[in-house]
Specification:
Elements lengths: L1 E5 L7 H13 L5 E5 L5 H13 L5 H18 L5 H18 L6 H9 L1 H16 L4 E3 L19 H17 L3 E5 L2 E3 L5 E3 L5 H12 L3 E6 L4 E2 L11 E2 L1 E3 H9 L10 H6 L4 E5 L8 E4 L9 E15 L7 H13 L4 E6 L4 E5 L3 H11 L3 E15 L3 H8 L4 E6 L3 E7 L1
Parallel strand pairs: 1-2, 1-7, 2-4, 3-4, 7-11, 10-12
Antiparallel strand pairs: 5-6, 8-9, 11-12, 13-15, 13-16, 14-15, 16-18, 17-18
Bound molecules: aspartic acid and magnesium ion.
Length: 418
């Protein structure tokens, strides 16, 4: 059996969903679990709904806009359909009921209860459309299969429980020649609340299912021909990497290449399950493969992350930055879940670059400021070049103000003014 994952861009409108149907038709007769994200920019939109809700603003117009988007797509796919409409409206009612409850003040918890509707809607619509198009499938609720703790917005998977549930539900359906359709990005807790696995978490969901089911492979269908050495929107001459060892892919995702969610690779590597990244425009093309292989060519890869914050931390008492300070600083980062993308220390200061929400960074800094002086530069850019060359360095730094620079044998990183 294999696991497919379709991201937001590959289900963003009716033509994209027809294209998904055509891809699945190429795999008729195969055992497939299909993991699907929210459609287009729905997750961002729902984040806006949550913001309005948390500020006690009226959300009804936003909910209507969200529904119109989904219903228009459904009508374009299935003009006379009633059943799909009814299912979408039932989800809308669930969302409206949720938004009628008083805001609990627990932002991360509310985030997961609300933003998860994006995936519930997309999979409901697509599962119904596929069934009407002759693809036998069963819709499964990932909130009852992917079990996590209650770290909202970053649920940590309980592998034992998740494995048991997935193995109890999925193989029987595949045996009955049903494709399984489920949601990426979302899961559930033992208390039956919904969680999310972190932005772009649908890749991780695909890996979770693949791991628990010992899949032959995972395929992520994207709007690019495969894994590229740079974002083609910034680097028009980006090229495709054909075969990438797990370790190299892990490093790329560690530095923030938006190709694959960083948690995705470990479960796959542990079971030697290859991950294919393929173009949903050209499903016949080979795409890229991450697996047990050797890196064929060491061309530079570019990873650019905007909207970073550079923190520079100085002990107030003019002491050196040493083990005691560092361990205190790190435990604060851990406490506030501030994720560090780059760090550097000197005698009297310690600098980190983070992409975590400014809100959360500020909470962390507030606590830090009792013992440290903290300076920050907001909205800076972090550029990482793997397998760098003089030419690739010139390319990213020319005409830019460099705030910080760090090199190793394979990687160079710059924090630049945006
Ligand atoms: N819909 C979620 C997001 O946009 C998860 C995903 O697409 O992987 O982050
Ligand atoms: Mg996505």
């Amino acid at each position: 059996m294999q696991v497919f994952k379709f991201g937001g861009a590959s289900v963003k409108d009716a033509p994209a969903i027809r294209n998904l149907l055509q891809i699945l038709q190429r795999y008729t007769g195969e055992e497939l679990v299909v993991v699907i994200s929210a459609m287009g920019k729905t997750t961002n939109f729902l984040e806006g709904v949550l913001r309005a809700y948390s500020q006690q603003e009226d959300t009804s117009a936003l909910v209507e806009e969200l529904m119109r988007y989904h219903l228009d797509i459904l009508r374009e796919l299935l003009p006379d359909d009633e059943e799909g409409v009814a299912r979408l409206l039932a989800l809308r009612d669930g969302l409206t009921r949720k938004l009628a409850e008083p805001y609990s003040g627990r932002y991360d918890y509310e985030y997961d209860q609300i933003v998860s509707f994006g995936e519930l809607m997309s999979t409901t619509l697509i599962s119904h459309f596929l069934r009407c198009s002759g693809i036998a499938n069963t819709w499964l609720n990932a909130c009852e299969l992917v079990m996590t703790d209650n770290t909202y917005r970053e649920g940590r998977v309980d592998w034992q429980c998740t494995g048991d549930r997935i193995r109890r539900a999925v193989p029987a359906l595949l045996g009955q020649h049903q494709i399984v359709i489920t949601q990426g990005f979302i899961g559930g807790t033992a208390e039956q609340t919904r969680v999310t696995l972190g932005r772009e978490g649908s890749d991780y969901t695909a890996a979770i299912f693949a791991y628990c089911l010992d899949a032959e492979r995972v395929t992520i269908w994207k709007d690019v021909p495969g894994l590229l050495n740079a974002d083609p929107k910034r680097f028009p001459d980006a090229v495709k990497l054909d075969e990438i060892p797990y370790q190299e892919a892990l490093e790329l995702s560690y530095y923030g290449a938006s190709v694959i969610h960083p948690k995705t690779l470990k479960p796959l590597q542990n079971k030697h399950i290859p991950l294919h990244v393929k173009s949903f425009f050209h499903p016949e093309d080979a795409g890229s493969m991450i697996g047990d292989c050797v890196l064929s060519t060491k061309i530079p890869s570019f990873i650019v992350k905007d909207n970073q914050t550079l923190l520079t931390i100085f002990p107030k008492d003019f002491s050196f930055v040493a083990e005691e300070n560092l361990s205190e600083i790190f435990s604060l980062f851990a406490k506030y879940r501030v994720r560090i993308n780059m760090m550097q220390n000197s005698a009297l200061s310690f600098s980190v670059c983070t992409g975590t929400d400014l809100e959360r960074v500020k909470e962390c800094v507030e606590e830090m400021q009792t013992r440290y002086k903290v300076k920050y530069n907001e909205h800076v850019t972090l550029v990482t070049v793997r397998h760098y060359t003089p030419e690739s360095i010139r390319r990213v730094t020319e005409g830019r103000t460099i705030l910080l620079r760090q090199t190793s044998r394979t990687t160079i990183q710059y924090v630049l003014l945006s």
